[in-house]
């Protein structure tokens, strides 16, 4: 697998390369799994549209309400699933039908297809001669790694139905993985999983992060640790709360999600954890500026929050598996810990407190993950494929 592709020798700067690609590919289709709730993978879609402003969008389910004009003011082709009542709210339940939905799209006439996929978007059929580049956020986690569902509330009937359903998902996912001409992974960790599950090599282009906003934030560290983001089982927010209680450290949890009440209940009445729920952008910035460090105990394919935190000058204490190994420099911009246990995280906090870090090191590190870098590196991959 090849990492951090650079423009071929003699190629002009990224803006000129993009101009050449736009001329080379007059009709571009951007395909994304679903457009319902803004998140990190949707930021990639926005950057793809910045690269190719004339592109048309294809997706399984589309709710136009939360999206900026760069999405809404262009052709957006939603699949037949979008006509199902309640589809935009209940799209996860439609997963068994997603493969059929993407295979139903007619992409004839397009010169370039860019799929942004963590599920079925890559499974589209493209005509001969059309270049298909897949930006893969991850192979379908729940299909290939059923342990990813640990902690989720799944009824008995659904658990009985899961094995044949997952077999079907794996079959469709593997068939779809043969269709892109080029795979691009959002981290070396994901590239290794693409090779493991699909038998395909992948370039590595880290996802775009709005580092410029966070680089301008001021730091005035207070005496608390921060957990920020969705509170869902695999993010293991419970470990941060438990480690804080072991050390008698204040931990603030900013975010909501389906695991919030379970984590709150496990914390108990004597816990020093402070559950803030969802916070405004201004409050988020204040928390990033005031925390001692960000606690990131989950396993992520990449993990945008640790990059945002470092751009704000905030060190990160993260589980040292997955994308964190690529975004956090142990002993320089934070600390990595080895086991997903309260004791291992507590030891990492104590190690962090004994370190003297360069306060500007996190910001310098975060600059590697800006939006311009993403566009330049992805343009180089596309140009090389041509």
UniProtKB/TrEMBL annotation:
All residue ranges annotated as the Glycosyltransferase subfamily 4-like N-terminal domain in the record: 38-212
Domain of life: Bacteria
Domain Glycosyl transferase family: 222-368
Gene3D superfamilies named among the record's database cross-references: Glycogen Phosphorylase B
UniProt key word Lyase: no
GO molecular function: glycosyltransferase activity
Keywords, sorted A to Z: Glycosyltransferase, Transferase
Enzyme Commission code: 2.4.-.-
SUPFAM superfamilies xref list: UDP-Glycosyltransferase/glycogen phosphorylase
Pfam family, one: Glyco_transf_4
Keyword Zinc appears in the UniProt entry: no
Protein name: Glycosyltransferase
